[in-house]
Amino acid sequence: MHFNPYGGAGAQVAAAVATLAHRGGATAADFLAAGLAHGMALTSIDDEEAARILDWGRKLHEVFAAPEDARVDLVNELLAVAACRPYIARHDGKPPHLHYASEGAGVVIRVHAYTAGGLAHLVCEEPGRLGVCSREGCGVAFVDTSRNGRRRFCSTRCGTRVNVADHRARQFTA
Fold this sequence. Notes:
- The protein has about 170 residues and is mainly alpha-helical.
- It has one domain: Jann2411-like fold (Orthogonal Bundle), CATH 1.10.3300.10.
- Helix content is about 55%, strand content about 5%.
- The chain is built from six helices and four strands.
- It has helices spanning about 5-25, 30-35, 45-65, 70-80, 105-125, 155-174; strands spanning about 85-90, 95-100, 130, 140-145.
- The strands form two sheets. It has a two-stranded antiparallel ribbon. Strands 3-4 form a two-stranded antiparallel sheet.
- Helix 4 packs antiparallel against helix 5.
- The longest helix is centred in the N-terminal third of the chain and has 19 residues, at about 5-25.
- This is Putative RNA-binding Zn ribbon-like protein.
């Protein structure tokens, strides 16, 4: 499945930040790595910024965990906080593309705008493509990029664990 740049990368950063916040104990380096892994142009995140991003990540996780019909209102709340103002940017030899925060904005504002914008695009285009891993105790947020859009687990590993446990439970009761 092809997502636009914000629906794709912005939503992927949202999933990564939501997961870090859900698991707890994330550091500034963890948030920096998550942003860089999905193409954000970040140079550093300090501890105070990381704490603010952690709070934001908890709100992002609510979107991933919410029923599909509740996501629009939750994302609208994120957009209101992010106070996004879209504009078309051209830099670093890239073709024109959307930005939702000025290039001079601080890292927290940019993370807010990037993730809220990405989730907004995704909720409008494919609201069922957001999820939280169905394995009890996991809680990893993900964007479902599978062909059929029916992903239930964050990874093959979690899916296999659940399937093996279900198989063993059936064998035990048989």
